[in-house]
Give the backbone structure.
Amino acid sequence: MRSQKIHLEQTQPLMINVPKGFYRLYAAPHSLYAGRARAYLIKRNIPFEEFSVGHPSFVNEVLAKSKLFTIPTLVTPDGDVIRDGGAIVDHLEEMSGNLFSPDGCRQSIVSSLFELVGCEGLRRPAMHFRWNFPRENKAYLHYLFFHTLPETDDRELKTAQVMDRLTKTTVLRGVTEENQKLVESLYFEFIDALDEHFRCFPYLLGARPSRGDFGLISPLYGHLGRDPYPARMMVTRTPRVSRWVERMNRPNQDAPEYFSVRTDFLNDDYIPETLLLTLKIVSEDFIPETRASVEFMNKWLSTHKPKTGEPASSDQASLPGMIEFTVRDTLFQAAVVPYRHLLLQAVQQTYDKHDASERKKIKTLLESCGMSDILDLRLSRRMGRKDNLEVWLD
């Protein structure tokens, strides 16, 4: 699931006044997936106004085109509606000439991989640190969710219901009392390694944010960089990661501590060792879960045989089921999330488009950080987007 699902009541039309040429972003400050769309608009200096999905205009003007009550959803100055953070970034990148997509084969695969890791690989700690520390987080989260919902008489009740439902996502993401210490350890190792990387570089691949940065900001801003408990840990334990979170939400480069830093990706398709170490840590639980998910989904596809054009996302259909996998000799059980495979497919397509010599470089790189299996962990059916929905292709 890469969008926060919101249930709203039909409301009376309310006119809104957005300056000509501005975009409208329907989001929420605490939404994981809204983070990358918002950061992209900021970094591109694209003028926009942000609205809550509780705003009447979402139901009355947007929903018919967006199809689902999910965020983020973008309305262009021409009135086009784009639902999903990945689709929004795709659209805006195409308009900009792929400004934040590196050309080199190694950097392009790493950027795509961090986009996947940010949107799916860190969902477990994002949910754990949000919902399993109510003493520190509950009052803050109540404020955020309460003000996301429309002003109705049962607003308080609906807030409690939404928060109660979302609390259960920790279990669906595989967090239990037995394994939560491992979930925390893996997260701390990850941000420690990322902090060391940011010692020398303001962004993942040098002095310019990549699509990987926009994917990674999703959990590290909405949940882990703002909720009181994990945010406090981030600031005190990994201040460079905290600064990167700030940097990703500012229109300028915002890298004065690096003094003579340039403004582009690293030369010669270079990937720093610190970034490879960061990916190596991610691989320990990302690869086992992805392998189990691919095996499950391929069996599901062979049994159900969805028609071309049928919904392929768990926001549009029920979750296919649960999987088991082992991380550091610890058993995990988690829900299968088809959207993971749409992002994984993008990584594989990045690999496939290169020639043989470049694919060899990519494979060598991925082998060095324990991620080479992602090249072969493929579904038997492709996924795509049509009319703001994720669907099965031929």
About this structure: The longest strand covers residues 322-327. The CA atoms of residues 105 and 358 lie 6 Å apart.
